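Query protein
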Amino acid sequence: MSPTSQFSGNSSPINFRSSPLPPSPTPPTLSPQAHLNGHRTSPAFSIKSESPSFKDLDLDENIDPSIPDASNWTYDEVYNYFAQYFPEEAKVFKEQEIDGPSLLLMKRIDVLTSLKLKLGPALKIYRHVVKLQVRRDDPKLYWL
């Protein structure tokens, strides 16, 4: 192929120069004993986070019968629950149409940022969300 090409058609010829693309770099490969953060690793070695998660906790303990089951709540029932404790902030649950199943899926970041609440009330609301999710009142769960 020549460095200059011409196209014919209804318009005048167009000239352009084509240049070859440079070869793409080859991605690096890791050996089974590659260094990771200064430690040697092997295929059987896995890195585990030091922060706790719901998986690390014994959630098979008995549920607290005083904590209601929100799994089938409508968004009005969610609103009514939070209105008992947070009359001003509870309206966001109605505005966002958060029903029981949605409430049980919420994460900390959802409560602290997505609901657009002040931090203090948001943290207290998150405590209630976790209580409803696990149906236990355990302070170590509130910071997951």
User: Anything to note?
Assistant: The first strand starts at residue 4 and ends at 5. Residues 40-53 have pLDDT under 50 and may be disordered. Residues 71-141 form a domain with the DNA polymerase; domain 1 fold (CATH 1.10.150.50).
